[in-house]
Design brief:
By secondary structure, the chain is mostly helical. Helices cover 66% and strands 4% of the residues. The protein is globular and about 105 Å long. The two termini are 56 Å apart.
Length: 928
């Protein structure tokens, strides 16, 4: 943290509430639990002083600290490395995959690029190991200036700390969006009240002080302690005594920087040059600074003494500015030629073998005009950054390389590469700027087509629906005569965009995309996975289910095989695109529960193993959707929570699909309707027609469970106006039930025809069981009995437990209305028990009412002990029941073994058991 510029007690004047909060954080860590706090406030408001206070109060702690530096934001994992450096002696204690990931990330060894979540888990484990002997305090100042990789990893760690004696305290300015740290416990550091402000001002001014000047400074400072301490330094003693006002009017932070820069300007020239060089060197490496000073002819000793005497900096084992605003004032307000000179000296002083990336970074900042040698070095740095998992840093290096490329044609190539990398890293604004650079150069036809494709991908990354399908299809047409493989890749992307856009698409739908695919370039020989997928989807959409089912089933098996084999990076990239369009919509489209289970489980397994940043939340959501249909609502909810936490940790938008289904099936009416309505508003704004259909499908399920058949019929009718892949068939079933139970059987006749077409082509037990149940709903008594029995028999042979329970409920209701009470009780009791076990409260209540009508006594389901488990406790308990060790569970769920142990302690207490073996007797195995 910063070196106090005044007495520590004075710096903390009026901060009793904030100090008490920090004391509570440290006390929690001392008590063997984790605590996280984000201090948020304006520049100079006192966050650094509070972190210094926490460091001083952390007696008995192992304290590690880092401060973000604006000029270092492009260097991958630089801040994380600095924070973890004192703990790396325990690196060998980590599991091999985590140890290797962190070693590659920090450049300690060579290796393939580690995935961000594996790095996050490694840092979590490292902190947990370090906290075995004594608690750990992690203090992070100026978090808004950490490099993206470091901030994302630390945010991930902050959300996973539970039972480790670790205190993690961030300080960040309130001017940044704070997306990565959103949702963490936060304390807003406000300005001092006027009495404390006057007292602090009086402690800093040792000359006669005119009351009018004092009040003007207090008013100008708005309670900002740094402003209170620095503004008087801009006035001469005569001005302080004579009543002259202080002319400001700008933002407080800018005013403080101006005052600090004024103090900087009063230094001798050699001291100013030394401080400028120190401000340009973010690591605080004194040896490097002295070498750079020597190269500039700066007498380091005398220059440093004058700078220290001015109270701006301290030179020890590290260079430490008294406050981050000092560095900013020096660097940002110095002329560009002076900054370039400092960076040039630092580049020459940096060993090109030991730290080639930092040398390239300094050379880039020293360049006044494009230089090919600098651009080439930046390209090489981008490759190394990508190898360490620094996607954002690699993109930043590539963008700077493009800007410094003198040859126009080569600049276009580098700009397109930089745009691609930036899109993959999630940098929308920077990607737009790189596309503009490329567009300004001499583009050939292929480069123009690539540019259009990247621009379309940008649109899709921001709004999944909207205009993205048309833009991607146009790009595919332009690519077709130039690069057949890339054109087909783009067609599959267009298919995914059209699927997400659904009914809200502003351009081509699935039909238009697949017609373009059929008329477009031929597949590669041998066909790639993307070719097999694209051709099967084309056949399904154009030729219909009967003709397309076999090809689609073959494509899914190809993906299945790829998941279990060692594929190339390019294959894996398309496998993850396949994850978007294969497990979630296509396996249900084929009513193939075996394929759905294998594909969804396999996708999650590979994503966990690789720590795949962008894909794991999606894969978890798809697996959760499958588990909803197998009746494992609690496990599904745990996966949804995990997916949401991961999305929030990296600043993504959580996918709400499975959450809607869980809410609809659980039928807690008010929160379910609120979630459905909120989601509908959000997805309409984003142009996601598929998600809008899903909200209506969830509404139909909810209302059928509650017995509101007219509302269910209306919602299901809306869903079925557009044939969304996957759940269109499910919506047909909801429509048929609502029509039959609501007394409108004619409304379900056309839906039955549509459903029969799909289920007959599939031929699975799930498909034929749902079809038999649907026909029974619309049949007379002669046929209905046999059809219900066929439905129950077929659905009993598949994994889709919710549809089996629905069939039993419907058959039981049908039997009761024909006075076959004993037979109806058997079916209704089975349905009631199943729905109660799932947590499907609406359907369970429907079954209970029917049982009561048969004369059977049935109590309302009460909350049992098992349902008191949280979603994560349920997930951990299930894994422990299945024989997984604590480290295995920790690695799978991205938490520490100690947190697993803590959760299991809660599980044992709630369930009244003492061992893992006893879990098997109180936790039922997963539904099959």
């Amino acid at each position: 943290m910063g070196v106090p510029a005044i007495d520590a007690q004075a710096a903390l004047r009026g901060r009793g509430q904030e100090m008490a909060a920090l004391d509570r954080v440290l006390a929690t860590a001392r008590a063997d639990s984790s605590a996280v706090l984000v201090l948020r406030g304006a520049a100079g408001i006192g966050k650094t002083a509070l972190l210094d206070y926490a460091a001083g109060r952390a007696d008995g702690f192992r304290t590690v600290a880092v401060a973000g530096i604006e000029s270092e934001m492009e260097l991958p994992f630089a801040s994380l490395h600095q924070l973890c450096a004192p703990l790396l002696g325990r690196l060998g204690e980590l599991p091999a995959p985590q140890r290797d990931a962190l070693s590659v990330t920090f450049g300690l060894r060579e290796g393939g690029p580690p995935q961000r979540f594996l790095v996050g888990l490694a840092v979590l484990s490292l902190l947990a190991r370090a906290a075995v002997d004594r608690p750990v305090a992690c203090l992070v100042d100026d978090a808004q200036w950490l490099d993206e990789g470091s901030l994302q990893v630390l945010a991930f760690v902050a959300r996973r700390l539970v039972a480790e004696p670790v205190a993690l305290i961030f300080a960040r300015r309130d001017s940044d969006d704070g997306r990565e740290l959103a949702g963490l416990p936060e304390l807003i550091v406000k300005g001092l009240r006027d009495p404390e402000a006057r007292a602090l001002l009086a402690s800093a001014v040792r000359v006669p002080f005119d009351p009018l000047v004092r009040e003007r400074i207090v008013a100008e400072a708005h309670g900002n302690p740094m402003a209170l301490l620095q503004l008087p330094r801009a006035l001469a003693p005569a001005e302080l005594a004579g009543g002259f006002g202080f002319p400001t009017g700008g933002p407080v932070a800018g005013t403080i920087e101006a005052v600090l820069h004024q103090r900087f300007q009063m230094l001798p020239e050699e001291s100013r040059r030394l401080l400028m060089t120190a401000a340009a060197e973010p690591t605080g490496d004194v040896g490097l600074l002295w070498r750079a000073a020597g190269l500039q002819g700066i007498p380091a000793a005398s220059a440093a003494a004058a700078a220290e005497a001015a109270g701006l900096v301290e030179f020890g084992t590290k260079v430490r500015f008294h406050h981050p605003l000092v560095r900013s004032a020096v660097y940002q307000r110095t002329s560009a030629p002076q900054r370039r000179a400092a960076h040039q000296a630092l580049a020459e002083a940096t060993d090109p073998h030991l730290d080639p990336d930092r040398r390239a970074w300094h050379r880039a900042h020293a360049a006044a005009r494009p230089q090919e040698s600098v651009a080439f070095d930046l390209e090489r740095s981008a490759c190394r950054a990508r190898g360490r998992g620094g996607a954002a840093a690699a993109a930043a290096f590539l963008r700077r390389a493009a800007e410094l490329t003198p040859d126009p044609a080569r600049r276009v190539t580098r700009a397109l590469t930089a745009a691609q990398a930036t899109i993959d890293a999630g940098g929308v604004d920077q990607a737009h700027s790189m596309l503009a650079v490329a567009e300004a150069g001499p583009l050939d036809d292929l480069q123009r087509a690539r540019l259009e494709r990247l621009r379309a991908r940008l649109v899709f990354s921001q709004v999944r629906g909207g205009d993205a399908p048309r833009l991607l299809l146009d790009a595919a047409h332009r690519l077709a005569p130039l690069d057949a493989a890339l054109a087909r890749d783009t067609l599959l992307e267009a298919f995914g965009a059209a699927m997400f856009a659904g009914r809200l698409s502003e351009g081509p739908g699935l039909r238009e995309v697949t017609e373009a695919a059929r008329a477009g370039p031929s597949p590669s020989s041998p066909p790639r996975m993307v070719d097999v997928l694209l051709d099967s989807l084309t056949r399904l959409v154009i030729d219909g289910h009967a003709a397309g089912v076999d090809a689609l089933r073959h494509a899914m098996h190809v993906v299945w095989r790829q998941q279990g084999s060692g594929t190339t990076d390019e294959d894996r990239r398309w496998m993850w695109l396949a994850c978007r369009v294969t497990p979630e919509p296509l396996a249900p489209e084929l009513w193939d529960d075996d394929a759905w289970q294998e594909l969804a489980t396999g996708a999650v397994g590979i994503a966990r193993e690789a720590g795949a940043l962008a894909v794991l939340p999606m894969a978890l959501t798809y697996q959760a959707c499958f588990l909803v249909h197998t009746g494992e609502f609690d496990t599904a909810a745990a996966l949804i929570d995990e997916a949401t936490a991961i999305s929030e940790a990296v600043g993504g938008v959580p996918m709400m699909y499975s959450s809607l289904l869980v809410a609809a099936w659980r039928a807690q009416e008010s929160p379910a309707r609120e979630l459905i309505e909120t989601t509908a508003e959000e997805v309409v704004a984003r142009g996601e027609g598929r998600a809008l259909s899903l909200t209506e499908y969830a509404t139909a399920v909810l209302n059928n469970g509650l017995g509101h058949y007219d509302a269910a019929l209306a919602a299901a009718t809306h869903v079925c106006q557009y044939e969304d892949l996957g759940f269109f068939g499910w919506a047909l079933f909801e429509l048929i039930e609502a029509a039959a139970r609501g007394g409108h059987p004619e409304a379900g006749a056309w839906a039955l025809d549509k459903l029969t077409e799909r289920t007959r082509a599939s031929g699975t037990d799930w498909a034929l069981g749902v079809a038999a149940c649907s026909r029974a709903l619309l049949s007379d008594d002669r046929d209905a009995d046999a059809l219900y029995q066929e439905a129950i028999e077929r659905l009993g042979r598949c994994r889709i437990a919710v549809h089996l329970a629905r069939a039993r409920l419907l058959y039981g209701e049908w039997l009761r209305r024909r006075n076959r009470r004993q037979e109806s009780r058997d079916q209704l009791r089975s349905a009631y028990e199943a729905f109660s076990r799932f947590g499907a409260d609406g359907f369970a209540e429907r079954a209970r009412r029917e049982l009561l009508a048969t004369g059977e006594t049935v109590r309302k389901r009460t909350v049992d002990t098992l349902s008191e488990l949280t979603s994560q406790e349920t997930q951990i308990a299930g894994l422990a029941r299945d024989g997984h060790t604590n480290p295995e569970i920790a690695a799978r769920l991205f938490i520490s073994p100690r947190t697993v142990e803590w959760h299991l302690g809660n599980v044992f207490t709630k369930l009244g058991v003492r061992s893992r073996r006893q879990l098997r007797s109180v936790l039922s195995p997963p539904n099959r």
